[in-house]
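Changelog entry: the SDR family oxidoreductase record was regenerated in this release. Current contents:
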Amino acid sequence: MSANKALIVGVSGVIGNALSEHLLGQGWAVHGLSRGRTAVASGCVPLTADLTNPEQLRDVLHGLDVDRVFFAAWSRQANEKENIRVNGAIVRNVLDAVGPSLKGGHAALVTGLKHYLGPFEAYATGTVPMTPFREEQGRQAVDNFYYEQEDRLFEAAERHGFSWSVHRPHTIIGFAIGNAMNMGVTLAVYATLCRETGQPFVFPGSPAQWNSLTDMTDARLLARHLEWASTSDGGRNEDFNVVNGDVFRWKWLWPRLAAYFGIEAAPFDGTTRPLADRMADAPAQWAAIAAKHQLREPNIDKLASWWHTDADLGRPMEVLADMTKSRKAGFLDFQSTPDAFFDLFQRLEAEQIIPKR
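Regenerated structure tokens:
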């Protein structure tokens, strides 16, 4: 019997997939909760439920023996008021179902740097803290579903007697199909489209993002951070930024991504050109590419999230996060961001999601 037993909420997403693979590799027993639309890692016990349905969750999770719960799911709604209602309820519903058996255990919540920037509908419109973002800067004076999720986590931890941690990654690079927020796969699909159709590989974002320092988070490093916080005294009842540990400028990285795919990066003239505005022909183009190269997924909508990549690369300010708090608490891991992209691209090729070079 495994000494560590985990429930991953959102197991089929970019975070949940990396976390399940990591924990299984460390000998954990892993149950994965999702809507059941995507296969889970081999060895993970799949559980299917509507996270917004408390009665269904109680039935599915009844009698489940776990000592760690990891929240890596959210449900995008039409506005932040609905985001707060729905996503706060997800945390509450799961912890209402498993909380009584979690006494002495741990629950970890993954949110992100919108903790500092504000939600999409009020993105960076308030007083954005000075970069690099630090945990001590606290919450912004705007509605934000991250805060609601935190409050439901804190409330349940106090009521049921378990510890908690909150993890705030920057843009996540990792393997997942059908994920709503996945820049790595989106850029791989975009670069492939450019190579196969002769389109220019144009940076879609803002001058601020092109020129400023930034950082990212490899899903594999985030998985190791989640395990560390859930098993170490230094990670209990704390909030943490989680980034790779290196910084870069997109004007340096963009040509390197292009070179991986054997294409040239188009010169950036300072104009923001969102992908969502330029991808009207992409579904048909991708279907043809998939047929030509015998790829696994001909539906581009299951691979690329143009809107999310546009939101990240279109930011009008520098965005990067400080990792000092994690370092001082004992987490010293590091990940090269270019290697994170190249590792992902190689896996996408190996699994026939994009054509091999």
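The longest helix spans residues 80-98.
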